[in-house]
């Protein structure tokens, strides 16, 4: 069962995503990380990194990607991880926009959650392949920041974290600022969700049945590629 199928059956996840999208259209998402946006980001982090039910964890995905010749070739494993998740979000974006304006309001919250869970798992798996420990709080914070793509470096600097310079991230929790997760939620939560908001220009195309599916797939695929590039830069190979 894929993540899209799992979330369609998870009323709590859908309700959380809907509430977070409403909250993200207000200033509250920027000033208070304790509401629906907080719950959504926590869900994205926990399912994406640790897995749920039949949905594999980031560590499991990394291990599978490292099989065969990729065991000693981490970049080959990284490419496998990106390809796998690119297929997943492309399918999710297509299904969300396929029915146009009739089905979009119903499917969009699930698509938001589905996209960011897959993106989180992808980033986490890349971090594992590159030698990082997902049990480290700082690594988990960095994974969430990476969901902003090219903006992730600015977000990390704003909360007091400098770029990783190829050193293992184990044992560095002492460098973390106070309440780092809340700081990241405040910085990225609203912006992440607004990228999927009903006012986004890309959703005018999604409102057209058929064409909306194609545009939704291309849009989600493009955004995932940005996140993958940020993950490659943000988690350099541990020497």
UniProtKB/TrEMBL annotation:
Keywords, ordered alphabetically: Membrane, Transmembrane, Transmembrane helix
Superkingdom to which the source organism belongs: Bacteria
Transmembrane feature ranges: 89-108
Pfam families: EcsC (PF12787)
Keyword flag Transmembrane helix: yes
Protein name: EcsC family protein
């Amino acid at each position: 069962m894929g993540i899209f199928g799992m979330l369609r059956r998870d009323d709590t996840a859908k309700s959380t995503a809907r509430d977070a999208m409403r909250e993200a259209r207000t200033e509250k998402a920027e000033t208070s990380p304790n509401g629906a946006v907080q719950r959504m980001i926590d869900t994205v982090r926990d399912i994406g990194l640790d897995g749920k039910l039949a949905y594999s964890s980031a560590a499991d995905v990394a291990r599978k990607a490292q099989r065969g010749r990729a065991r000693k070739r981490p970049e080959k494993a990284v490419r496998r991880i990106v390809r796998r998740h690119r297929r997943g979000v492309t399918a999710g974006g297509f299904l969300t926009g396929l029915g146009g304006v009739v089905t979009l309001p119903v499917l969009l919250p699930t698509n938001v959650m589905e996209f960011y869970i897959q993106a989180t798992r992808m980033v986490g798996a890349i971090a594992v392949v590159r030698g990082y420990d997902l049990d480290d709080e700082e690594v988990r914070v960095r994974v969430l920041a990476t969901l902003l793509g090219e903006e992730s470096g600015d977000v990390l600097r704003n909360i007091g974290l400098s770029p990783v310079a190829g050193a293992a991230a184990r044992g560095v929790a002492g460098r973390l600022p106070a309440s780092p997760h809340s700081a990241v939620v405040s910085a990225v939560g609203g912006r992440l969700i607004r990228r999927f908001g009903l006012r986004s220009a890309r959703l005018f195309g999604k409102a057209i049945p058929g064409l909306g599916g194609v545009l939704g797939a291309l849009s989600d695929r493009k955004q995932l590629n940005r996140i993958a590039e940020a993950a490659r830069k943000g988690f350099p190979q541990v020497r």
